[in-house]
């Protein structure tokens, strides 16, 4: 009986693994529509910290909600006055969900522009599709970022308060 159950479980896993086109995963964040393409920007963490080498600039370029293939993308980062802070050269990507690690040196407001050349598109094969997004970089010596505050302080405190309230309510009964 155990062998039959194990064989059935393996068969189900194999069938599920073969269904490669049933699920798509894209980044969720700020979106801009450019000539029928949707460009999504989702930095991680949501508010990067200056000097941290753990910042990821996540982009997703979609056509009708689906990834496109064989793209070349570059990134230009400018400060508030429009001066170029850094450029990341064009690089080929197999599909259009891309992640670029980047460390911002100083806190402040920046614009991150994704330049993408799309193979097979008459307009954007030679001239890049450009989408620019604003991002604020936090000072590491200032307040705790909102998402970290919620995750590490507010949520546990709320859980403790609820636990105490339930305990006191049951104690009165």
Runs in which pLDDT lies below 50 for 5 or more consecutive residues are none
What structural category do the secondary elements indicate?
alpha+beta
Number of strands: 9
SSE topology string = HEEEEEEEEEH
CATH topology of the largest domain: Immunoglobulin-like
CATH level 1 class label of the largest domain:
Mainly Beta
Gyration radius, rounded: 23 Å
In short:
This protein has helices at residues 2-18, 146-172, and strands at residues 30-34, 37-44, 56-63, 66-67, 69-79, 84-95, 97-101, 108-118, 129-137. It is of the alpha+beta class.
Please tell me about this protein's structure.
It is a single chain. This protein is α+β, with helices and mostly antiparallel strands. 25% of the residues lie in helices and 41% in strands. It has helices at residues 2-18, 146-172; strands spanning 30-34, 37-44, 56-63, 66-67, 69-79, 84-95, 97-101, 108-118, 129-137. The strands form two sheets. Strands 1, 2, 3, 4 and 7 form a five-stranded antiparallel β-sheet that branches. The chain has a four-stranded antiparallel β-sheet with strand order 6-5-8-9, with no helix packed on it. It is flat and about 75 Å long. The mean pLDDT is 84.
SSE diagram, text form:
Elements: H1 2-18, E1 30-34, E2 37-44, E3 56-63, E4 66-67, E5 69-79, E6 84-95, E7 97-101, E8 108-118, E9 129-137, H2 146-172
């Amino acid at each position: 009986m155990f062998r039959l159950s194990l064989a059935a479980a393996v068969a189900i896993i194999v069938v599920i693994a073969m269904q490669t086109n049933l699920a798509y995963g894209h980044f969720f964040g700020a979106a801009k529509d450019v000539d029928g393409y949707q460009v999504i920007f989702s930095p991680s963490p949501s508010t990067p910290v200056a000097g941290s080498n753990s910042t990821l600039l996540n982009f997703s370029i979609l056509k009708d909600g689906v990834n496109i293939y064989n793209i070349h993308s570059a990134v230009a980062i400018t400060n508030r006055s429009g001066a170029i802070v850094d450029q990341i050269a064009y690089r080929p990507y197999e599909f259009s969900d891309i992640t670029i690690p980047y460390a911002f040196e100083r806190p402040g407001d920046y614009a991150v522009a994704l330049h993408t050349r799309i193979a097979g598109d008459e307009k954007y094969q030679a001239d890049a599709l450009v989408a620019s997004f604003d991002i604020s970089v936090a000072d590491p010596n200032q307040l705790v970022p909102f998402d970290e505050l919620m995750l590490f302080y507010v949520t546990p405190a709320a859980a403790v308060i609820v636990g105490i309230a339930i305990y006191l309510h049951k104690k009165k009964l």
